[in-house]
Amino acid sequence: MIKSFLKRFYLVLILILLYAPILTLIVLSFNNSKTRSKWGGFTGKWYVSLFQNKEIMNALFTTLAIALLSAAIATLIGTVAAIGISAMGKRKRTVIMGITNIPMLNADIVTGISLMLLFIAIRFSLGFTTILLAHITFNIPYVILSVMPKLKQTSKSTYEAALDLGASPLQAFLKVVIPDIYPGITSGFLLAFTMSLDDFIITHFTKGPGVDTLSTKIYSEVRKGIKPEMYALSTLLFLSVLILLFLVNMTPPEAERKKKTHPVKRILVRRVAPALLGILVLVGGVYYSTSSNVAGKKQVIVYNWGEYMDPEVLTLFEEETGIQVVYEEFETNEIMYPKIQSGAIAYDVVCPSDYMIERMIENDLLAELNYENIPNIENIGDTYLEQSKQFDAQNRYSVPYCWGTVGILYNKTMVDEEVDSWSILWDEKYQDNILMQNSVRDAFGITLKYLGYSLNSTDRDELYEATDLLTLQKPLVQAYVIDQVRDKMIGNEAALGVIYSGEAIYTQSENPDLEYVIPKEGSNVWIDSWVVPKNAKNKENAEAFINFLCRPDIAKMNFDYITYSTPNEAARDLIEDDAIRNSKIAFPDAKDLENCETFKFLGDKNDALYNELWREVKSH
Amino acid sequence: MPKKLIDIQGVSKSFGDNLVIDDLTLYIRENEFLTLLGPSGCGKTTLLRMLGGFETPDQGKVIFEGKNITDIAPNKRQINTVFQKYALFTHMTIAENIAFGMKIKKHTKSYIEEKIRYALKLVNLEGFEERMPDSLSGGQQQRVAIARAIVNEPKVLLLDEPLGALDLKLRQDMQYELIRMKNELGITFVYVTHDQEEALTMSDTIVVMNQGYIQQIGTPEDIYNEPQNAFVADFIGESNIFSALMVEDKLVKILGVDFPCVDVGFGKNKPVDAVIRPEDVELEKPGSGIIDGIVTHLIFKGVHYEMEVEAHNYTWLVHSTEMFPVGTMVGIHVDPFNIQIMKKPVSEDEEAIEVEE
Amino acid sequence: MKSKTLKQLLSGPYLFWAVAFIIIPLVMIFYYGLTTPEGTFTFANVAKITTPENLKALGLALLLSFISTAICLLLAYPLAIILTGMNVNQNSFVVLIFILPMWMNFLLRTMAWQNLLEKNGVINIVLEFLHLPALEIINTPAAIILGMVYNFLPFMVLPIYNVLSKIDKDVINAAKDLGANPLQTFLRVTLPLSRPGIISGITMVFVPALTTFVISDLLGGSKILLIGNVIEQEFKQGSNWHVGSGLSLVLMVFIILSMALIAKYDKDGEGNSF
């Protein structure tokens, strides 16, 4: 009795471990609040807005299409291969099975990287096809390993018996061998399908612009907070699979004993399930192909920061100009740069920050803009164009999009004292309550400023001093984050966080206990501007896109959505709310910016030094 | 008469709704070769597993040498089993397999080595010590399984259809081997099989079982010559079984015709079952037998001819050294002492033994 | 004979595929890992592993993946035994329990642990309600280990369950019959017989745990750098593919070791991971 109770108990514990996160996600899908760290009441609205969210639906259909196609192709190749391998001698078989084991045992990261290197080396542009090829590659072994044992069980004589009874080899194969190993084939297919569905790492390395599977979409959203629609979608996916599998496995015990498949089950497994999936992907495929780049259509490939544009703006642009937008996002300048530099993907318009623009100009990666195509630039305030000259000396390459400062966001309920200095980030009182920026230049910039140096310092001693200080700070830091600082501060997870001014307005609206300050030592004032890479294929479309973004109503739409300060003065005038139009956070006085500097490009050598020192801090 | 070694008292066992053994009582004598015989699903393996300790009866007791061992774990019983599919430890060599039980009992190394040598000699596998089980043929694995069990010097050796997976010739050889080993070792064998020929060849005592009940216990001769009911008659060898009427003592009405017999004490005009072995049916000229029939089928079987004779709407199975071609009219004669009369089952329990067609 | 050769030809497409998408890409990694950006041969990229930061990242990754593998084994073995003993007439049911979570995206599931583990997370709210001390493991190595165990446990359970459920019950009975008590039966028979499952489970858990960068990213608050993170950064941020490839080569040493281990116990050459 006790023993069986213990067994049950243990089983339940493990099931809780396995299913607790899933339950959490299901609960989150009904959360009225947009951030995951706050419960805002029950709602079903995400389930509605999910189906209106084109990006998520596209990602879903890409995911399903890749999973289905890769599983089907892998099943075909794998099954046929398994039959071939089983006919081989022992030595040959061992070698081939060794190769087959490689993708299964090899680290996903190595498999992904190796395929990426291959695709880039043969100038195969990364996209849907490359993901598909990669998925087929790692799926085949699962199929082979599922089919091989079944093949071993079937006797050769059945095949020969079929031949003896007058079947052609093909008929014998289709009518005798295949039905015999059918269970192996189906389980191989299902396994491949599941693995493809769940893969992130390999897709991460082999995907191209504008193509996202659910995994990569989620990963890019992780840093800035997952869209609740994603939880809703996952819940729906999970539940539909659960129900389907439940139906399939609900075989009456009597039928089971007679080893006869229940007709309902058989129909479900053989007809309904594949048909449903097929229809789903077909419909999705049609939907997908109408909504994404069709050959011959005008398009523009945009590479922007995460959550840095109102999706409605893209729709408007497409409607007005007939130019298709392929939209992709990055998290940091440092992640964006190598993609442009490698030229593996030809982006048309990119939105880097000041110092990175300088670097790109210096490395001859940018095309000069034709300002005749961008008449709306007149709406941009002169001060900002003047500031831009720090990195784009003659205003020839860039058009400002957003600007802002870096400061400290703190929670008034947790911090009693007045916050006016970076020093508070080194105060042991706040151990484990500090969120630090997870990007090299920001982290070092803050520290250098705190030490009274320039945030563009290249002086080794100053940098080492900063490194030591950052290392000293590490035990106090709860986490190094980028956009997640927003959710965590809203959820009262930390007392202090380093944040971009643009995020401050949104976080304050969600949690009024938060306050933003630019420390007295000074900080970084930054500008993100639109540029066109030299290898852009649709330069004119890119310029039309930039011009569109400079239209006051559009700039205002974006400001309302992303709450980052706009350099578009005509747009600022359109803001109805006085408090926001005159907000010190969004539009600080010149006095507040006294000690602030703009990042400059420090040269590849110094960049490498910064990176090395940063890694030293991180691995300490 | 040797004393009782195992006493099984009123055991029952069911799996779910399925009653496998119902209130079964049986004793096994010392140094006996006892065979549990019956079709699959008759409960014989379950009974064996209860002796081994792998199943616990729902009711009843198993007494071993006067001690109740019903709830004793298998590892504490002086009984060893040879499993149906040998159940060798595939990760050990033959020597390690055989040494397993002795190592558990912490015997000395020299004792173990001596025993392994002896056991391998007994089963004719000298020199196989370092081989792995996978590299052995089915018959060889079978012998290892036996060797592994007997080195522990059990009082009883349980064998669960040990020859089932072997081919005919090997099976026959092993039957003699087993008899030889049993005599050499002087221990009790409890043997489970569904093969009646195997049972008749090897056993001292046969227990015929069906649907959880014992149908008959007896020597091979008893079982063959005097089956106590239609099931046993049908299961052991081939038979002509009739639903008949006992007219009076020494006279039975079969297929509406009176046959003289030797049985008495069934009462008057009582329904009975009558069994006639095919070799006891004598064919003569038409009219000179008790009833007449026509030969419908003929096969040469080596020692004899097997024929089917259609008579009074019944197909008689006949074994004879004399040949009657198909279509021949024949007379059928049966000597009175070759007709075996059996009571019809009346209770529900006995219903179970009705012959399944 | 002819039909046999013909049959062997069936594996042709796969062999082509394997060469194109398994072998050649690996060669590419070797090429990048052993050359400078200018194309000259060098060991410098591989030698980068010896810098204190990288060694630390590798050491930590080895430590964490070792601990997670051990925990997975300790959790999975009893579980597999219980599942085998439950006598579920359908294997698929057991497989289902463990495969099902995979239909919810792995990133989301790992993310959800943030919600559960955070200072004001679900677990701590429950603990507070019960007046128990708070659990503070988010952004620590402990959280990463939890994430690894959570994500990779199925890969340990399934192979062990598969092997255990294939062991003939009578083999276990035979051991008991020969006098072994339950502990002896387990140590001398069950455990050695399930070794192929254990080995395959260990490699299926150890390799992905050793090389992950996502779990450490999500649950370690980017404070903890594992070797996977270092390599990912070389490719995605640092843009030094040569160093990244060089470090990948170091990782491959561990992968080759596990393949050798598998080969040793999987003599039929057909794998038994699933």
From TrEMBL, chain A:
It holds the Pfam family SBP_bac_8. SUPFAM superfamilies: MetI-like (SSF161098), Periplasmic binding protein-like II (SSF53850). It is a multi-pass membrane protein. The keyword Endoplasmic reticulum does not apply. Keywords: Cell membrane, Membrane, Transmembrane, Transmembrane helix, Transport. PANTHER family: PUTRESCINE TRANSPORT SYSTEM PERMEASE PROTEIN POTI. This is Extracellular solute-binding protein. It comes from Ohessyouella blattaphilus. The lineage of its organism: Bacteria, Bacillati, Bacillota, Clostridia, Lachnospirales.
From TrEMBL, chain B:
The lineage of its organism: Bacteria, Bacillati, Bacillota, Clostridia, Lachnospirales. Transmembrane segments: none annotated. This is Spermidine/putrescine import ATP-binding protein PotA. Part of the ABC transporter complex PotABCD involved in spermidine/putrescine import. Responsible for energy coupling to the transport system. The keyword 4Fe-4S does not apply. Belongs to the ABC transporter superfamily. Spermidine/putrescine importer (TC 3.A.1.11.1) family. It comes from the Bacteria. Residues 6-236 form the ABC transporter domain. Pfam families: ABC_tran (PF00005), TOBE_2 (PF08402).
